[in-house]
Amino acid sequence: GHDCCETVKVALCASREGHPVLVVAEESFQFVQDEAYDAAQFLATCAGNQQALNFTRFLDRSRPPAADVDFLDEKVALAFRHLKLPAEWNVLGADQSLTENIPRETLMHFAVRLGLLRLTWFLLQQPGGRGALNIHNNEGATPVSLALERGYQKLHQLLTEEGAGEPDSWSTLSHTVHSGDYSVKHHRGLDVYLLTAEA
């Protein structure tokens, strides 16, 4: 998960109480733009854009195999998670004057229609995420009714249970904490802290 295409220098450090921090190894890596990054950028910018969201419905006609959906879900959700979204970004788009009574397609409909569990969980945590659950599209379906109609039990549970936790496969990850040009992430599974400085 990385939010821009650039070369970064990575240093592996070790520390013990009472001893100076020791740099064990250093290496540079080139991050490149991939399909997941492109998809996350596209989805983030088309929140509320009905023409773009209606265009995404063609994906539904050729449903990929479950393994491909799982791979797509993980990659796009991770890319989304690491985008620097503007402070005013909303799952429902920029036009907050629209009421819940106006039928329209939302990012939540898109994620649920394809069975993207992790992306749906991410969107639920964002501004407008919970509000999107009550919006009907032009066929009269809400994200909740779509999940039920398609037999996505875990997804339906995620959307209807109060305080539903994040998907299991993400239990070792944590959100990055940004502060100016610095960010810190704790990888719980490895008990490793990553400090990133913008240079």
UniProtKB/TrEMBL annotation:
Name the record gives this protein: AKP13 protein
Top-level taxon: Eukaryota
InterPro entries from the UniProt entry: Ankyrin_rpt-contain_sf, Rho_GEF
GO molecular function, a single term: MAP-kinase scaffold activity
Gene name for this UniProt entry: Akap13_2
Stretches assigned to coiled coil: none
Native organism: Tichodroma muraria
PANTHER family recorded: A-KINASE ANCHOR PROTEIN 13 (PTHR13944:SF18), AGAP007712-PA (PTHR13944)
Cellular component aspect of the GO annotation: actin cytoskeleton; membrane
GO biological process: adrenergic receptor signaling pathway; positive regulation of canonical NF-kappaB signal transduction; regulation of Rho protein signal transduction
SUPFAM superfamilies xrefs: Ankyrin repeat
